[in-house]
Amino acid sequence: MTLTIHGRPPASVAASDLLAVSGMSVSVPGRGRREQLHLLEDVTFSVGAGRCTAVIGESGSGKSTLLKGLLRTVGKGSRTTGRVHLDGVEVSDLRDREFAKLRGSSMALVAQNALAALDPLFPVGGQVAYLARRHTGGDRAASRETAVRLLGKVGLPDPERTAQRLPHELSGGMRQRCVLAMALACGPRLLLADEPTTALDVITQANALQLLRGLQHELGMSMLFVTHDIGVAASVADDVVVLYAGRVVEQGPVLDVLSSPLHPYTQGLIDANRPPAPGERWRAIGGEPPQPGQRAGGCAFAPRCAEASSMSRTQRPELVRVGSVTVACHARTGGAAAPLDPPPPGAAPT
Amino acid sequence: MTGPPILRAQGVHKTFRSRDRSGRRHETAALRGVDLEVPLGGSLAVVGESGSGKSTLARILVGLDAPDSGTVHLDGVDFPASTGATRRALQRQIQMIFQDPYRSLNPRMSVRSALRFAHHAEQPGADADEACRTMMQLVRLPESYLDRRPHSLSGGERQRVNIARALIARPNVVVADEAVSALDRSVQADILNLLADLRRELRLTLVYITHDVHTVSAVCEDVLVLHQGLVVERGRAATVMADPTADYTRALVAAAPTVDRPLVTVRPTSPPVAGVPS
Fold first, then answer.
1. CA of A177 to nearest chain B CA: how many angstroms apart?
2. A169 touching B, CB under 8 A?
3. What's the CATH number where B199 sits?
């Protein structure tokens, strides 16, 4: 039996999913009149309660746009469509004013560039306190106490004193912890992390990842973790979504996807991450991902793919469930006609 | 070791002085006595985290900064101490590939102008157009790209232009300061293959400055690990990376997650593993 997921809204949102996104598309105005650039197309995935889903892909694949689409911060003139269920409640129909209340309390962002996310003119403690006050009310003294507690929670030494420091007085790792404290200020159920450790040194990164995962479990949060580093994804995530040119090409449990990738793109990403033996060549994917607006019909990966068939160039592959993962590739699923593994009994559409 | 050292640094010290908001003087010792040697045609990776002094070392090696004490010998001549024509001739021999492909090219200059500028600075009078075309072939970019500006190029293409700009002076030694760090791994692989090809074709000596322990043994024969301005470990790259002896190197290698060896300590359900300091 073939279960086609493409384009179909989930019949019911699985009770265990904290976030369920179905058919999300994001487009922004292009240069020409009426031209719309499609940054994300028909993205469907979910994040289980208490779980971490990593979103991987090259630059320009739409990873960050996905987070912006979820937070409704894509920008002027953009269009976001599709259904988003958060904690069982559909939030895609909310008016902007209603939706704004979700930011911080239901879902919070940990930005990539901690230096840019912090105001250089104010002590970091005040910035955390402001957010706590803004979202949960309470007086200044209470929010200040909350801030110091949070700064301690993210592992900053001497939080009382650190709270009074300006961002530039802190190291990169400490700043990233402050940004994390800001994200935690209103007790979000879902943490959206946009390459939170990319700017950090490797040892600092290992500590930050450990901290993120620890807090996630302690506070019972779910996490959507955007990264281009497959090693990081393999370290933090339970599930993984592979994006290419604004579409999901493969998704499933992280161990299954990374140990036996089905999509040639996922395989290519993994190969490019494996250093060759000294003197041998790196296995590059070759070529670069298409720009939005220059994506041809058929499979967007076809021009870079060794396994592309004439079908790949003309017909877009749909996401098809194969065992525990779903994949969009003609070469793997042989079109819709080929026999496929049945989905596990009771499996909810992702 | 394949030959006599073309690049040799001995006892390089560098201290930066600054003042804080209250006017107090601060001294930051970036390099505290670094020795290194690269044989002609060899390759040395300098690995370290931010603040280890690796970029300061790169700048001193190519002559952009002068060491406070210590010497840098390029082709047997004390490079920082040289002046005039000797200095210019030496400068041509060692070139740098800069880190950030988005900021190291002048956005208002076409690729051609960027290359011509470097060409003129290093060998005025020679046929620049011919050299530009040769360089584009060398870095596998179409000649038509000569008339494009950086904003219309992808990160990988910009870094190819950066490499062409470094090579147009026909150097013997190239210092690549985090030359692929800003790129996606898939593009990194392409650029590292190109660097390997160019090393072979042009018999280049490579100094590869990086924080990315995971690429080291595939790119370089030798490695030097820098921590707070001191060399904590050096040796053959394959040996050091597979079996580091210094505690710091061990922590560095253990903290770098790969797809085949994720950070198990990050999973709260797994037992902690020694090596990653918390």
1. 14
2. no
3. 3.40.50.300
Give a yes or no: residue B71 inside a domain: yes
Q: Does B214 sit within 8 Å of A214, measured CB to CB?
A: no
**Which of A235, A269, A280, A291 has the most B C-beta neighbours within 10 Å, making it the best mutation to test the interface with B?**
A235
Structure tokens given for B264 = 């198990």
Whether residue A291 is predicted with pLDDT greater than 80 in this model: the reply is yes
B191 closest CA partner among B239, B164, B156 = B156
**What are the pLDDT digits (tens) for A88-98?**
899 988 999 99
pLDDT at A231: 92
Q: Are B277 and A210 in contact (CB under 8 A)?
A: no
Give the nearest partner residue to B262 out of A231, A268, A285, using CB atoms: A231
Interface test with A, best of B266, B270, B276, B278 (most A CBs within 10 A): B266
pLDDT of residue A338: 42
B139 part of a folded domain: yes
CA distances from A254 to A51, A94, A199, A236, B233 (A): 11, 32, 23, 9, 35
Phi (first) and psi of residue A221, to 5 degrees: -90, 160
The mean pLDDT of chain A is: 86
Query: A22 vs chain B: nearest CA distance in angstroms?
Result: 28
Q: How confident is the model at residue B260 (pLDDT cuts 50, 70, 90)?
A: confident
Counted residue by residue, chain B has a size of 278
Determine whether B93 is exposed, middle or buried from the number of CB atoms within 10 Å of its CB (0-12, 13-18, 19+). Answer: buried
Residue B184 within a domain:
yes
Domain that holds residue B79: 5-243
Q: Do A210 and B262 touch (CB under 8 A)?
A: no
Q: What is the pLDDT of residue A259?
A: 93
**Is residue B168 in some structural domain?**
yes
ipTM of the assembly? 0.84
Number of structural domains found in chain B: 1
Chain B residues with beta carbon closer than 8 angstroms to that of A202: 49, 211-213, 252, 255-256
Cβ contact, residue pair B185, A234, below 8 Å:
no
